[in-house]
Amino acid sequence: MSTPTSNSIATKSVSTGGLDKSVAALIAGTKWDDGGGPAVTLTYSFPSGTAYFKSNYGDYANTSKDGFTGQGEFYAFYALSGAEQAGIAAALGAWAAVANVSFIQVADNASVVGDLRFALTDVADNNESAHAYYPSGSPVGGDVWFKHGEWHTSSGSTLQKGSYDYLTAIHEIGHALGLEHPFEGKPKLSAAYDNYSYTVMSYKAHKGGDNYADFYPTTPMWFDILAMQELYGKASHNAGNNTYTYHSNQQYWETIYDTGGTDTIVSVGKADVAIDLVIGHWNKLGRAIDFGDGWTQAKAVMIGPDTKIENATGGDGNDKIKGNGLKNTLEGGDGHDVLRGRGGADKLSGGADNDKLNGGKGKDQYFFKEAPGHGVDTITNFQRGEKIGLDNAAFSGIGDEGRLRAKYFVTGSAAKDADDHVIYQKKSGNIYHDADGSGHAGKELFAHVDPGTKLHAGDFIVI
Hints:
By secondary structure, this protein is α/β, with parallel strands linked by helices. The protein has helices at 21-24, 63-66, 82-96, 164-177, 222-232, and strands at residues 10-13, 30-33, 40-45, 77-78, 101-105, 116-121, 130-132, 144-147, 243-247, 254-256, 264-268, 274-276, 282-290, 296-303, 311-313, 320-322, 329-331, 338-340, 347-349, 356-358, 365-368, 377-379, 387-390, 402-403, 409-411, 422-425, 430-434, 443-448, 460-462. A nine-stranded mixed β-sheet has the order 9-11-15-17-19-21-23-29-24, with no helix packed on it. The protein has a nine-stranded mixed β-sheet with strand order 12-16-18-20-22-28-27-26-25, with no helix packed on it. Strands 3, 4, 5, 6, 7 and 8 form a six-stranded mixed β-sheet that branches. The longest helix has 15 residues, at 82-96. The relative contact order is 0.08.
């Protein structure tokens, strides 16, 4: 257990030779090493009025003697509030969610302290909100100090996710675990990636901009995840079936990291969204991020490394939804939506209004769950072996679940008898439903395929 005079967890030098330069650019060169392999368990604590610090903690005059440096922060330190401590715990959890590092809170007194200690101080550079120390065996190693009077008040002392304070906490913990700024040392991160969308260790909100935004990242981002996993290994996170819900009236800036299960992204609201399930691709979900220079970023949710999301559901806007090569289930909801499955045997359902459906490669299925009259969906490149599914609660007269019986299907411009409820006009590619067959009710257009496509009763299923 660490004490006020020394850290009990050993450290280890890290070589970045052979690593991707974008990952190497974030690794400072040391990591915590408790002897259990790349994974590590660290303690943390919150100094208060009874806290004890080594008398020369941060005393530059003793650098050569004790092998550590600091700024004498404890001479003017303040304890974090309960709400701030909860925010720090959440920020620690954000790192534990992506890398194999665990955190346990302990007391902070004269005999026991955390490997990582968190407090406020008046001893800080005028231009900083906080600072932290890289992993080391000295008392300062892993400690994080926030500037009292600035960081302490900018978000009402609550460390709400999306605030600059919460981002600062994630950033400083990154240092305490062994990450550095992307613009320091060699190699440096490319200017295209030196911003918050790719690393919380940056000083820039977006390429070429300053660090102001009206909402900040709430998770480690793409290169942060890869760098921290290089140090401590990959975490198992959200390995079950998970649903990630995004509301159109809220803001999000995050990287989804998920290691298993059958997962779904759901959009709620009337705004137009763009969902792309491919790893490393951005998604337009929620309100845009506004920056100080007038620039905005609409796509602020990324699919993280090794993260396989199988399904997506749009909201009430005109949505664009793309799959990722897995067996995706894509649902448009209301609005004029565009769904594209890419590879894999996908299931596409446009929902209400006029939608465009393209399953891509693979034997796909196209489902119609809304009654005719709620829109016309266009299916592009329908292939042999694919299926069009009709809900018998919405399409009357088509029989029970299973394969559509031949007597309910007819090719031509109109029903020929009372059983002809699904009518396909090959020349135009139009597909109609006729509730009473050759009766007087009339047919309703509900779908369209490429003109000349060969369709038979066996291409339809009843759901």
